[in-house]
Recover the amino acids of this structure.
């Protein structure tokens, strides 16, 4: 599965990194505490969070996340989008809750 | 053992938004040098925690990285307030971070425990009012 397939099946909005959406995504972690996310997000994971500040980009980059999905309609800060573009990090958004997103991802075999 | 490389960085104490940059640079360098991705990940996680601590607790500092084929050493030195009770600070969940910092997703009290977990050697020297030096060692 790649990020583009996930985005189109779940109707996610791209905030950054659409050009890298052919990237693989597997596994998922949900959480908003950066230290925990940092150690739990494995390579290519989908990281679901409601944290929108610029530090999520550093965490996703250092943990080699597949993409970030912002749940509950959360919108990334301008600076976050800017930094994500620099660091080639994919940020997606959805109105769905983290739970709904995770259920849908699980149904898709993530 | 021959050293491949020595790196030096300054970490800005009042810029949250740039926290993690040093760790990113080191991660890139280690990847380019062909280190095992698992080792690189451990270095990145532990270093990021140290970098964040320097920014939120100690107003910045300096980081020195020595890279050798079998060992990576990271020394993070600050002239911040020091840590009054190191055993307490090492406890999972213990944090003195204030509300504004927690809202950004920091201050889970997992930083020092993560640094211990992800490194092969952690040494902390700290003196109240003088500062803290954290040394991390990784077997490559
Ligand atoms: N470099 C430092 N200088 C001063 N105090 C520190 C430093 N690093 C850690 N501390 C203290 O140790 C506590 C625990 O650190 P840590 O486990 O990283 O948790 P957190 O950063 O989430 O508070 C911090 O809340 C702080 O009181
Ligand atoms: Mg910390």
């Amino acid at each position: 599965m790649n990020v583009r397939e996930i985005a189109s099946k779940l109707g996610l909005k791209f905030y950054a990194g659409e050009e890298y959406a052919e990237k693989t995504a597997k596994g998922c972690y949900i959480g908003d505490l950066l230290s925990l996310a940092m150690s739990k997000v494995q390579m290519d994971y989908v990281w679901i969070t409601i944290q929108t500040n610029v530090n999520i980009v550093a965490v996703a980059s250092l943990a080699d996340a597949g993409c970030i999905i912002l749940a509950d309609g959360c919108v990334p800060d301008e600076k976050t989008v800017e930094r994500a573009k620099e660091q080639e990090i994919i940020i997606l958004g959805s109105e769905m809750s983290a739970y709904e997103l995770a259920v849908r991802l699980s149904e898709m075999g993530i | 053992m021959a050293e491949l490389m020595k790196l030096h960085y300054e970490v800005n104490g009042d810029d949250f938004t740039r926290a993690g940059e040093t760790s990113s640079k080191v991660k890139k360098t280690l990847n380019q040098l062909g280190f095992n991705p698992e080792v690189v990940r451990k270095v990145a996680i532990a270093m990021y925690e140290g970098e964040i601590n320097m920014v939120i607790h100690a107003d910045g500092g300096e980081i020195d990285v020595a890279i050798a084929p079998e060992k990576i050493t990271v020394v993070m030195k600050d002239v911040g307030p020091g840590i009054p009770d190191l055993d307490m600070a090492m406890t999972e969940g213990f944090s003195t971070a204030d509300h504004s910092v927690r809202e950004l997703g920091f201050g889970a009290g997992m930083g020092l425990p993560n640094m211990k977990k992800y490194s092969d050697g952690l040494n902390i020297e700290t003196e109240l009012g003088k500062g803290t030096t954290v040394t991390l060692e990784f077997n490559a």
Summary: The radius of gyration of chain A is 12 Å. The pocket of magnesium ion (ligand 2) is lined by residues B 49, 52-53, 111 (CB under 6 Å).
